[in-house]
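We treat protein structure as text, and this decision shapes the records that our systems exchange. The tokens are whole numbers drawn from a learned vocabulary of local backbone shapes. One such record is reproduced below, unchanged from the form in which we store it:
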Amino acid sequence: MSFLIPAAYAQETAPAAAAPGGEYIQFIFLIGFVVIFYFLIWRPQAKRAKEHKNLLGNLQKGDEVVTSGGIAGRVVKVTDDFVVIEVSDTVELKFQKGAIAATLPKGTLKAI
């Protein structure tokens, strides 16, 4: 089937001598990748998770919050797994605690 392109074969040569310390270089690269993974990915993610857990643990009635969906409101009731948020005078919505993205400074909802 090689009518148009001739087959290319590698030239047979003597086996190349291994570079001195080649095993150590690979080990150093592996350790370098682990360190980069830790500082660029794992550590910041763990820090964000810890901050979010503290945020959810410190929720109180009267806090002004924003959900992950972008709904802003005032906390009316806090239970173990759910939070009731007052969006307007007559509308209260029930959310899981994990859906709370951030707390707002007091008075932010009045300014909006």
Observations:
- The chain has two domains: 17-57, 59-111.
- The chain has a mean pLDDT of 88.
